[in-house]
Structure formats: C-alpha cells, structure tokens
C-alpha cells in the first residue's frame, strides 16, 4: 500500500487515444499517408491504432517495419543475439517459465514460438496483459500462456516457488526497486535470466539524467552486480556484447512523441 502504483501502460494508451480523439486530422494523416512517407515513430503509432482496432496482422507487419528503423542496426544485432542465447539456455529446462515485467510481450511471445514450455506473462499492468491476451489469441499462441498481474516488489508466490524466471530489460522499468531483488530471491529457487543493457558510467550526460530519474540501480553494470550480490544472489554475466545505441527518432505527424 505504501508503494507507488502507476500503471504507465494504461496512462500511455489513454493519452494516445485522448490525443487522437481531440485531433482527428492527425489520426487521418497517420492512417491515410503512404506508409513509406511516415518516419519510424509515426509508423509505430499507426501500428498501435491498427492494434486498437483489432487489425493485428497489419499492426504486426507495420510494427516490425518500424522497429527495424527505430533502433540502430548494431543495437538490434546485440539485442537479437541476447535473445537467441537466452532461448538456447532455456531449452534444457522443464516446467513453466515466468517472464517478469513482460510489457507488450516481445520476449515472452518469442519464447512461446521457440520453446515448448508453458510461459507466464506477468506485468504490473492488467491493461497490457489484456492486450497481450487479444494479440496471442489472434495469432493462435495462447494455448500455453498464462497471464498474471502483480507488483514484483510484493509478489503472490510462495517461497522458492519459481524454478525459471526471465526478464527482457524489465528491471529498469520497476519503480522504487529498493527491495525488489530481495523479493525475487525469496520466490526464485532456480535460475533468473535477466537480459540487461548498461550505460557507461563515465558518460556524463547520460549518467546525470539516469541518476536524476532514479534509474541507476540496474542501468550501470557495477551498481547492478552489487545490488544482486547484496540481495544474496550468485550472479554472473554471460554473452556480453558492446554495441552503439542511438536516440530513437521522434514523431513528425505526432510531433515530438
């Protein structure tokens, strides 16, 4: 009860829907312009509108196109390599895999497609999990999926209940994570695979902004390792890669978004 309960997915969806209702000419421009004339950010917004309308196949195709241009090729190469490595590690385990802070389910959906185990999508936001249910149903992927909404800082699991947990950049998205790793250590008796990305601590501009918003716990390598060890984890880093991440382009039709 004393932890913040900000459903950021719900807030973002509500803000976009409200903005487009108030500016129908913007929605019309997003939806009617030739796709190749939209920049990647606006292509992604178009995919979101299609998704809201239930046009999932077209939404997926456009979102994939947008992702390929939103991020630098070097970044995408590193990210894909991490996911491939994780899937190879997970293939030897039996039983359900719990994916923490699933968000839109980018990792968890790949696990469903590539592995045979049941996958549990989890997130703080019931809204994003409902979205995932509709999406997975449409693509015929829901059979081995469960959805669970909970606050990772106060989980509903019994001690040691989880044998395998994953997350894809999820740790940095959990607010006020002071006791998060202690709680996760309580419930995970096996392996926790956390795909993470770290910024150089000597990058002054990034470091100041990151610390200002309280995101430094998991976004700097040394801080992350110290936090895991302090919570009682035996932690090691595998498949490390170095790649360049560039700022994503801003919307032009939806200006600055």
Estimate the strand proportion: 5-15%
Q: pLDDT average, as an integer?
A: 92
Rg, nearest Å: 19 Å
How would you sum up the major sheet? 5 strands, parallel
CATH 2nd-level architecture of the largest domain: 3-Layer(aba) Sandwich
CATH fold annotation of the largest domain? Rossmann fold
SSE pattern, N- to C-terminal = HHHHHEHEHEEHEHHH
Quickly count the helices.
Answer: 11
Total domain count: 2
Order of strands in the sheet with most strands:
3-2-1-4-5
* Highest-level CATH class of the largest domain: Alpha Beta
What does the secondary structure layout of this molecule look like, with pairings?
Layout: H1 8-22, H2 24-32, H3 40-52, H4 56-70, H5 73-90, E1 97-99, H6 106-114, E2 119-123, H7 126-138, E3 145-149, E4 162-168, H8 180-187, E5 188-195, H9 204-212, H10 216-219, H11 221-230
Helix pairs in contact: 1-2, 3-4
Pfam families: Methyltransf_25
Organism: marine sediment metagenome
Protein name: Methyltransferase domain-containing protein
Q: Which key terms come to mind for this protein?
A:
five-stranded parallel β-sheet; Methyltransferase domain-containing protein; SAM-dependent_MTases_sf; alpha/beta; 257 residues; Rossmann fold; Methyltransf_25; 2 domains; 5 strands
Describe the structure.
The chain is of the alpha/beta class. It folds into 2 domains: 9-70, no CATH class; 74-197, 3-Layer(aba) Sandwich (Rossmann fold), CATH 3.40.50. 48% of the residues lie in helices and 11% in strands. The protein has helices at residues 8-22, 24-32, 40-52, 56-70, 73-90, 106-114, 126-138, 180-187, 204-212, 216-219, 221-230; strands at 97-99, 119-123, 145-149, 162-168, 188-195. It has a 5-stranded parallel beta sheet with strand order 3-2-1-4-5. Helix 6 links the parallel strand 1 and strand 2. The longest helix is centred in the first third of the chain and has 18 residues, at 73-90. Pfam families: Methyltransf_25.
